[in-house]
Amino acid sequence: MPHLPLSIPSPPPVLAQFNVGPLLIHTYALCILAGIVAAIIITQRRLGARGGRPGVVLDVIIWAVPLGIVGARFYHVLTHTGDYFFSGANLWNVFAIWDGGNALYGSLLGGAVGALIGCRRHGIKLWSFADALAPAMLVAQAIGRLGNWFNHELFGLPTTLPWGLQIESSNVAIQNAYPKGLPEGTLFHPLFLYEIIWNLIGIVIILVLERRLRGHGSELRWGKAFGVYLIWYGLGRSWLEALRIDPTSDGFLGIPANIWASFVAIALGVALIVVQARRHPEPETSVYRPGWVEKPEAPSSGSSTKKKPTDAEVDQNSDLTRS
């Protein structure tokens, strides 16, 4: 079956990784890192506009990102046990994050723990941080999904649509990913692209809702913007997982774990919006916890520690000089 003229080619497998001197660089990892950097920049700008001090997002992210990566990997492994635990399996592959296989829901769980630690250490309200993060998360996920394209993964049912994704039957990037029984040249739904588009639409929805509801009692603060994120991403991920046929998550009652997790995300998003709307009908006036006083930074070595004189001290010195 020849590929249709407008079908989407998968990148050559050689682009999935390359060497820089002695280092082996994985394109998938670069996409994840680019998404993290973009999310940090966006979240800092949003939180800074709401009163957060410069650099506070980095102070929180330093806890959230490592725990988010650990959570993402182990959630993936625990929901794909057949890919990692079998006779003759190399158990070190459990930690091979660069080969793909990082579950967003696992990153949310691990990242939430890290964000809670970071926010408590620096006086930021967790839900204020989550609201600033909400559209930035969708940006990071959209960028990260490009890594799935380079890894020849995250594709769906066969299709004859002109934007079908080309997947080679050997699929050297992901073993046993090509569905058995399908002829060479079969095109598949590009789920990675669908999710990118879905995430970009979600960014617009959150930003528009924030602008429309600003100044009203129903404004998207107190965690409600993050609730919209959970609902939107859960809805999109549930139907995308239903189309997916490359190695997918283990299931319960015939439903993949990622679809169950999507249902949970939707329910949590709805609950978060309803509960926070009742608990906090008032506008949010600060992203800091009540009573929090920012600790002064220690002076750098060699810098002057002399305090700026107060007005009373200036007047006193002037009197002494005149006398």
From TrEMBL:
Its EC number is 2.5.1.145. Its main location: membrane. The keyword Hydrolase does not apply. It is a multi-pass membrane protein. GO terms for cellular component: plasma membrane. GO terms for biological process: lipoprotein biosynthetic process. It is found in: Cell membrane. One of its GO terms (molecular function) is phosphatidylglycerol-prolipoprotein diacylglyceryl transferase activity. Residues 282-323 are annotated as: Disordered. A 1,2-diacyl-sn-glycero-3-phospho-(1'-sn-glycerol) binds at residue 145. InterPro entries: Lgt. The chain crosses the membrane at residues 20-43, 55-75, 95-119, 126-144, 191-209, 221-240, 252-275. HAMAP family: Lgt. NCBIfam families: lgt. This is Phosphatidylglycerol--prolipoprotein diacylglyceryl transferase. It comes from Lacisediminihabitans changchengi. The gene is lgt.
